Amino acid sequence: MKTSVNYEKLTFHVILRDIVIVVLLICTALLAKAVIEQKRVIAEDERYFSAESTRTFIYANEGDRIYIPDSEYGEIWYAANTDVPLHGLDFSNVREKDGLKGYYEGDTCITKNGIDVSYFQGDIDWERVKAAGIDFAILRVGYRGYETGNITLDSKFHEYAAGAAAAGIETGAYFFSQAVSIEEAAEEAKFVMDEIQGYSMTYPVVFDWEPIGGDTSRTTDVPVRTLNSCARVFCNALARGGYIPMVYTNRRMGLVRFDPSEIAGFDMWIADYREETYYPYSFAIWQYASDGQVDGIDTPVDLNMSFIDYTKVRR
Q1: Is 289 helix (H, G, I), strand (E, B) or coil?
Q2: How far apart are CA 202 and CA 122, in angstroms?
Q3: Distance between CA 230 and CA 215 in Å, rounded?
Q4: What's the mean per-residue pLDDT of the chain?
Q5: Strands, E, within 178-238: which ranges?
């Protein structure tokens, strides 16, 4: 019996040793996999940082004022935010080629050409759009009605997403929001993510909230604080979903309705159809025309330049 007990103890120790060895091997393999993944991530970051290394951020000083010409009120001056980076762009570096504008450093265009479209553009020949020099397209996923508050899918979104991808055009998406609460903003974000899943959205997914005039508009009295909270809720949800969030606005609303310091963590898309924008803070995409002409699209279309090549941004 004693020998049997010793044998059982020995067998137990051997089994325990083997289990420890297996666990150590598994841990080693997992550690090696983690190291390889970390190296891959670092390499992607270096590729992105290399692409972004020429960006220099400057800030306003205490007491600085921002001048905005306004067609309704004339000259308007705002106190500058000292904690939000200025764009620092020299608009004399903007040049036009083949009907598309770009920002140049020397003889090199450093921006990407883009359009944004909805069902208003009708049928689009994406191959011709690509051949016309368009690098990216931001597609409307849908909208919330300003009277009813109902969410509606853009009837052309899925057709556009498939067609642009087949033509080799990078895509992003936007939702025309009329959210009046953070709950509605969260609902819009979920709707967008449900519709865009399965598509490779390399460009941003955008919160586009615009004021609608008239007595029937449900958004007329939305407070500034609520609007900024809606933008943050929408964008944070998209970021958690693995997408690049962005806020769309024009130069005046970007200063009057949005608080730049509240949404400074998100990339901005600014609409301004002047020769240069008076929006002073950093932005990633400039919508510089609403009446552009692009081969393959029969209607006027918004034209954009992106200062970031989002294909190099790691999500």
Answers
A1: strand
A2: 23
A3: 22
A4: 87
A5: 201-209
What residue segments make up the domains of the chain, in order of their start? 1-53, 91-312
173-213 residue pLDDT tens:
999 999 999 999 999 999 999 999 999 999 999 999 998 88
The fold for domain 91-312 equals TIM Barrel (3.20.20)
What is d(CA 113, CA 303) in angstroms, rounded to the nearest whole number?
A: 8
Q: If phi over 0 gives left and psi between -120 and 50 gives alpha, with beta otherwise, what is residue 176?
A: beta
Could you give the CA distance from residue 286 to residue 305 in angstroms, rounded to a whole number? 5
DSSP bridge partners of 281: 86
What is the C-alpha to C-alpha distance for residues 157 and 124, in angstroms, rounded to an integer? 12
Q: Which residues contact 9 (CB under 8 A, 6 or more apart)?
A: none
Q: Which residues of 138-149 are buried (b: 16+ CB within 10 A; e: fewer)?
A: bbbbbbbebeee
Structure tokens at 191: 């709707």
What mean pLDDT is predicted for residues 28-48? Answer: 53
pLDDT at 46: 41
pLDDT at residue 54 is higher than 60: no
Distance between the two ends of the chain, CA-based, in angstroms? 65
Instruction: Pick 15 or 135 by higher pLDDT.
Output: 135
68 contacts 78 by C-beta, under 8 angstroms: yes
* Cβ atoms of 174 and 134 closer than 8 Å: no
